[in-house]
Structure formats: C-alpha cells, structure tokens
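Risk register update: the risk of archive-format incompatibility is retired. Evidence:
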Amino acid sequence: MRPRLPETSAVLAVRRGVREWVAARGGRLAVVVGLSGGADSLALVAAAVVEAGDVTAVVVDHRLQDGSGEVAARAAEQALALGCVAAQVLPVEVGREGGTEAAARAARYAALESVRAGRPVLLGHTLDDQAETVLLGLARGSGGRSIHGMTAWNPPWGRPLLGVRRAETVQMCADLGVEPWDDPHNLDPAYTRVRVRTEVLPLLEDVLGGGVAQALARTADQLRADGEVLDALTADLLRAASAGASGPGDSDRPALSVEILATAAPALRRRTIRAWLAEQGVSGLLNAHLQAIDELVSNWRGQGGVAVAGGGRDHRLVVTREHGTLTVRVQPRNDAT
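Archived output:
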C-alpha cells in the first residue's frame, strides 16, 4: 500500500512535477531514483513512490568524504521507509579526469546506468539547479546550446523537478519529518557552482528585484525549443550538402557541397559544419576553427586547410576545400597545412 503524504503546498508542488513527468511518459511506470540523501532527491523519492510505479532508490557512494558509507546506508534506509520497493548502495571509484566534480558525475552516471535494467532514472535537479547551469553555460560563452540547460527527459535520465524550487523540496522533507543530509561540498567555495549558488544568484536576485532563477529557467526552455527547430534544419542541410558533394573525402570521410552550404544562412551553415565534423570524431572545436572553416565556404581566397582536433600521435585532421567540396584530410604531423 502506497503511503499517504500530507497535502502541504510543498508536497503538492513536488508531486505535481513528478505526476506531470510520468503522464508525459504514458502513465505509471517503474523507475530508478538517484538518491544522495539530500532534500531534493529525498523529496523526489517520496513523490515518485506515490505518483510513479515501483521505485528503486540507488545511492552512489563516491567515497570522497569520511563517513560516506554511513551517509549512503542511512539514505537507503530512508528510501525504504518512504515506500521504495528496493534500495541499494553502489560504492564507486572517482577518477581525476576533468576535475573532482566532473569525475564524480561520470562515475555516478555510469553506476546508475549499470543497474537501471531498462528503467528510466529520475534525478533530483530543481529549478535552482537549472538556473545555475544556465549561468555557468553563459559564462563559458560557447553558443546557444551551452545555455539550453537541462532537459526533463534525455533518455534514460529524467528530471521531473525542473519546475520546483529547492526551498520546496527542503520544506517537503520537513513536512514529512524526514531529515536530509547536508553535503558539505554544497557549501565549499572551492567549487564554482557553489559560488554561483551562494554568491552570484543571490546578488542578481537582490539587484534585479527577484525572479532571476525563474527567468533563467524560462530562457533555457525557450532556447531549447528554438534549438530543436535549428537541429532539424541543420539535419536537412547536412543531408542535402552531403548528397550534393561530388565525391568522398579522404578514405570513407564524407564531403559537403560548398555550393549548397554557401546558399544557407551563416548561422545554419556553421551549425551544419559543426555537426558534420562531430560525426567524424572531431572534438574540442573552437570558435576560431569554426570561423576559419566557414571562410573556406563564404570567403574563399585560395587559403589552406584548417587543422582540427581528432587526429592521432602521427597524423592530424585538416578540413580543406577541394573541387567545390569541404572534406577532411588525414595528414602526417610534419605536413604543412
């Protein structure tokens, strides 16, 4: 029998978020919830038990702090008390690549993926997390996609609480008599996201008169919707430019028709070039590289190719213009562009 929850405003807000997410996926279904023991994920567990199907809580123990095993075990016990059909603790090894935050995130997602058994995994990201993500993306200045924020459904990851404030999850735990764990890392100013949360956003709210977090979240929603349209147009242009190319590039690497690319709007053309290169394993494409490649189409003066990331120790990848096409050539490291 599913537990009854008090009908406070905070509980109803969290339940509504989960109910709408579940309804959009076709109705009640078994889910996994990634549980940290914090207020956001505990509130999500409690709401999912009522609004979804069978709920399994998975606590990933990153083992980055003393006593993390005890914290994880307590969170699993709380999940069972809230009505989960199962709760398990998964200890992981956190590497160093990309810094502690990125490495912990990679380890956490890999652990959740390993046990989900085809079920969606619900994560407790809130509207406040969304606002922080948008601000951090804006600071990177790497284009519209970097401020799309998080999406409510990016299979297998579900985020039902993106319209719920962090204060509501905290209040829900209080309403349920559940004591969440306060991760000391969430107050450590050594982490950029913590400073955004504790310093930047409060300052913006004060200076701009409130509503900043909601406005940032709305901006992410709008840009993500625009991005979906642009992605569809990009796919159409990529297919047309690939089909219109006179021949393949180096080996099996596809080429793009310069004539077809040149007729497209510059922003759409650059998105298409980026997508084309991503399909060929080109990573870490800088804006300067993209602009230089775009000039092979829009401002052709006989200039040489543009070296991009994705090669190996003995060779590199170079985007060149040849016989009316853009192509990617593999060149030895000692060749000049």
